[in-house]
Automatic annotation (TrEMBL):
Keyword Iron-sulfur: no
Native source organism of the sequence: Albidovulum salinarum
Positions of the ABC transmembrane type-1 domain: 30-237, 308-514
Protein name per Swiss-Prot or TrEMBL: Iron ABC transporter permease
Predominant location category: membrane
The entry's keywords: Cell inner membrane, Cell membrane, Membrane, Transmembrane, Transmembrane helix, Transport
Lineage: Bacteria, Pseudomonadati, Pseudomonadota, Alphaproteobacteria, Rhodobacterales
Length: 524
């Protein structure tokens, strides 16, 4: 419904500003988005694949610890990393203050310092926050490649660099491309970083056209351009490996034997793995924690407790609805042997590819129209105006979260169902249990760990979601993400620190789950 609504609004706007957009701001929005997306994807792919290769193929100081520390930037939303980087490197930040004190400079005219709030700064922040998507997939691909492939290449004279470029990279290409595609789609979706760095992209264009000019049709037209970009990214990734085949012989597969790096080589490898962790996790966390403890009174600030409760409410409700819906849909598809349900189920995951701002445009307009009709009907029947039930509450936010993150719940529950032996529910059915009874008494007890993980992962993503929440929230309704963004936008990092730190804490739980899942997979 949201995607269809965006298309209808774009092709039937009340005021067609497309020619104006095309001749003024749209080329700038599109150019910035393209440069930002390609640069971030390339940098994240280089960092993620390079770090994955080092920890998989070599043994160096702290390599086992760094293998897990490299996942930590996933806990820091990119917009929080942007606040921290600006606070650390800006004119009044500790770096420039220290430089002026040490060199005797008195003003910015005495020295040159790169602009922090720039497109380049946005690329660095986004890549530092999202390289773990590439790292996780690339590490799994490198680890699953048989050691025989690398041994044959060495026997034929390949050195360390040649081994990476001529064997490791080609075999891991699907995984690296998939991770880079995720990074690029998340870059297109981003609003917090580009807004804070004043980089005008297609996503900021939706906010500008909709909120500042009140033109929903124009916002929908920009949203269509974003959808086209996302579809192009997905198609490009698939076409790029259309004629390639990647096979792994299970019988001849042997795990990789790590090569020990000592001396300067080991120190360089350690440094190369420490840098992305420092940039994507240590620096943002250090800055936020410093502000949070330097100004303890901000923890008692008006609205923080309410934002925390709002976050728990909408995130918890969306996680519960999403996972419950995924359970019933996946179970229903497994029960029926018909083709149509199997074709429909993958369509429900399309919302994950749609940016939050696009979903917000496609949800708010039709839901608001429905809301007005319901309010008019209630007023006509009872003589009392109930107000806007859905858009006047957090229901629209919950709806957006459910659409956007259904793919996560669906994937987790489908995998959990697949791990249950078919003989167990068949035995329950033969003993007189209904389909619902088999789900309740056989599947759910065996799947409770996976269901709990799915609930937590969806909840974490709901807590971090910013664009959809900003556009769909009622007046004076804050979550932790929106409160952190608003305070940071006003240059009040001290008051942005407590909600940002709470968001990071929730993100760390998700990273812990990922690390535990990886450990279990390796144990098996």
């Amino acid at each position: 419904m949201p995607i269809v609504a965006v298309l209808v609004l774009a092709f039937h706007p009340t005021e067609n500003i497309w020619p104006h957009l095309l001749s003024t701001t749209l080329p700038r929005y599109a150019a910035n988005t393209a440069i930002l997306t390609v640069a971030t994807g390339a940098l994240a792919a280089a960092v993620g694949a390079g770090a994955a290769w080092l920890v998989t193929m070599y043994r160096f100081p702290f390599s086992r610890l760094l293998e897990w520390l490299l996942l930590l930037p996933l806990a820091i939303p990119a917009y929080i990393g942007a606040y921290a980087l600006v606070d650390f490197l800006d004119y009044s930040g500790p770096v420039q203050v220290t430089l002026r004190d040490a060199m005797g400079w008195t003003s910015a005219r005495d020295y040159w310092f790169p602009a922090v709030r720039s497109r380049t700064g946005a690329v660095v922040v986004l890549a530092a926050a999202m390289y773990p998507y590439v790292y996780m997939l690339a590490r799994a691909a490198f680890r699953e490649t048989s050691a025989a492939s690398y041994e044959v290449a060495r026997a034929l004279g390949a050195g360390p660099v040649g081994l990476f470029w001529r064997v490791g990279m080609p075999l891991a290409r699907p995984a690296i491309a998939a991770g880079a595609a995720i990074v690029m789609m998340e870059t297109v979706n981003d609003f917090g970083v580009v807004d804070f760095f004043a980089v005008q992209t297609l996503t900021t264009g939706i906010f500008t056209v909709w909120l500042e000019t009140g033109n929903a049709g124009g916002a929908a037209q920009i949203a269509c351009v974003i959808l086209a970009v996302i579809l192009a990214l997905v198609a490009l990734e698939k076409v790029s490996r259309r004629n390639s085949r990647y096979y792994q012989s299970a019988r001849q597969s042997r795990p990789v034997t790590k090569i020990a790096l000592t001396g300067w080589a080991g120190r360089v490898a350690t440094l190369l793995c420490v840098l992305p962790v420092a940039m994507g996790f240590v620096l943002p966390l250090g800055v936020i924690v410093g502000h949070a403890f330097d100004s303890p009174e901000t923890w008692l600030g008006a609205g923080l407790g309410r934002a925390f409760l709002n976050t728990l409410t909408v995130g918890g409700a969306a996680a519960l609805l999403t996972v419950t819906g995924a359970l019933f849909m996946v179970y229903g598809v497994r029960l029926t042997g018909r083709r149509l349900p199997k074709l429909v189920l993958p369509v429900t995951t399309i919302g994950y590819a749609a940016p939050g701002a696009v979903l917000a445009v496609g949800i708010l307009i039709p839901v608001a129209a429905f809301d007005h009709r319901v309010a008019d009907a209630v007023l006509w029947l009872t003589g009392r105006d109930p107000g806007l039930i859905l858009t006047g509450s957090a229901a629209a936010i919950v709806f957006a979260y459910t659409v956007r993150f259904f793919a996560i719940a669906q994937g987790a529950t489908d995998a959990a169902f697949g791990r249950v032996s078919p003989s167990l529910p068949m035995a329950a059915r033969s003993l007189g249990r209904t389909a619902g009874g088999a789900l309740r008494e056989v599947y759910l007890p065996l799947m409770k760990g996976s269901v709990g993980t799915a609930l937590l992962l969806v909840f974490v993503d709901c807590v971090k979601e910013l664009p959809a929440t900003l556009l769909l929230r009622p007046f004076n309704y804050d979550t932790l993400a929106t409160r952190a963004h608003e305070k940071a936008s006003l240059e009040n990092i001290a008051e942005a620190a407590p909600p940002a730190l709470l968001v990071i804490a929730v993100g760390l739980v998700a990273v812990g789950l990922l690390a535990r899942a990886n450990l279990k997979a390796r144990a098996r």
